[in-house]
Records
---
Amino acid sequence: MENRHRIFSVSVASVYPHYVAKAEKKGRTRAEVDEIIRWLTGHSQETLDQELAKQTSFEDFFAEAPGMNPSRSLITGVVCGVRVQDLEDGTMREIRYLDKLVDELAKGKAMDKILRKAPA
């Protein structure tokens, strides 16, 4: 339980540069990382920037998100050896959803597919 609390109390802002670096290393952009986070959480760019500036913990970031995207349940696959769809803990599942989306971005997946948009 101690380890779980430490993970959730980590600020999103402390991990955010790693998400951006991972994306940029593969030719993607900070704007695309932000788009993914906004899609997942319902934040506007302004409120996302505010949460990063406030050093909001992952636990509070997801608990107080304006509107978690219902399509996030379509995110499946393995992150750190764990199937995201099988995680029972809500906050850990949300963190892994975000990790998975950033992984997909870094792997060159099209943004429409990352954001689980149906083909037009």
Note: DSSP finds seven helices and two strands in the chain.
---
Amino acid sequence: MSYDALRHFADSWGLVFMGATYLVLVGWHFLPRGRRHSRDAATMIFKNDHIEADHG
């Protein structure tokens, strides 16, 4: 495979692949299961707040 053929492939199908991957990864968070995981990850830092407040 020559450089020009590889470059043509990357310019056309590489862009399509990266765009599709981006849409899948962003859309994943809008699924019901993804929302729960996102909410859990966003509030994870507050999980042990009540324990530290009792001891502090």
Note: The chain has a mean pLDDT of 84.
